[in-house]
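$ ./design --mode recover --in tokens.txt
reading tokens...
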């Protein structure tokens, strides 16, 4: 599932292509993609609207229209946008929604595993949408301060990694970047969050920001451009820079000890037993 860096890059690519464009027609091909809206309401709400900007909140993409409506999108595991040229006749497989633009191109939303989600919201009340209202502050915002993170950790009796994955505590982190941030901060993913020393919170916060910023800067996917419809959407181009994730048995880049993998909360956790402590 894409994490904050991937979603940020997709939102930037969509903004580059859609900002200022008018949606001539919106067509919902799989009604369950937008469970709270009928296909007729979906078409009426989006058809004729001009895109003001495309942004992001947490792992959600926000397509803001000048009409005052916002299309909220969660890609989940396999959702992706594909920008089709006017000459394209066939739709991509698993196309669930289709947007015809004023320049003749069509933007298709395809989702092989049917986990993606869309929702129409009033832009002015976006912060109160059920999907967004409980999200933690954005990592790069002033709200994600050392004091905030210390308080969030102090209130959790779950493990440190599980707490970082909680979107109401830390927004945007998934399994990959949580593991990377914990390694960078020399923090044991299995320790209880509430027992994490207050003096080390600043270094953990810094590690979270560094990992996310580095991933965004290096384009953490091989391709996020919806115009390049032939390539894989999430190629994992950042994978060569991972320090511990998916590197079981390989040497830690810091101390050369073998990276270990443990199952934690139903997911794989990769860590260095020497730099971060044994499980």
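writing sequence...
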């Amino acid at each position: 599932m894409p994490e904050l860096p991937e979603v940020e890059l997709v939102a930037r690519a969509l903004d580059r292509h859609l900002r200022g464009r008018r949606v001539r027609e919106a067509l919902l091909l799989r009604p369950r993609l937008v469970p709270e809206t009928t296909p007729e309401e979906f078409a009426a709400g989006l058809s004729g609207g001009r895109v003001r900007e495309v942004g992001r909140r947490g792992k959600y993409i926000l397509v803001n229209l000048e009409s005052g409506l916002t299309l909220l999108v969660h890609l989940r595991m396999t959702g992706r946008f594909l920008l089709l040229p006017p000459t394209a006749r066939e739709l991509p497989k698993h196309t669930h929604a289709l947007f015809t633009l004023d320049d003749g191109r069509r933007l298709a939303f395809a989702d092989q595993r049917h986990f993606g989600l869309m929702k129409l919201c009033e832009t002015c009340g976006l912060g109160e949408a059920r999907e967004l209202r409980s999200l933690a502050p954005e990592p790069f915002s002033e709200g994600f301060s050392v004091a905030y993170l210390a308080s969030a950790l102090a209130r959790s009796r779950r493990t440190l990694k599980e707490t970082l994955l909680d979107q109401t505590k830390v927004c945007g982190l998934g399994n990959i970047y949580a593991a990377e941030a914990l390694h960078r901060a020399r923090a044991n993913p299995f320790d209880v969050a509430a027992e994490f020393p207050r003096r080390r919170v600043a270094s953990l916060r810094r590690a979270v920001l560094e990992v996310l910023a580095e991933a965004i800067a290096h384009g953490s996917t091989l391709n996020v451009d919806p115009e390049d419809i032939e390539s894989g959407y999430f190629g994992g181009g950042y994978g060569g820079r991972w320090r511990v994730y998916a590197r079981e048995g390989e040497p830690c880049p810091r101390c050369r000890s073998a990276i270990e993998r443990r199952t934690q909360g139903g997911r794989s956790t990769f860590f260095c037993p020497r730099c971060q402590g044994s499980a």
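exit 0
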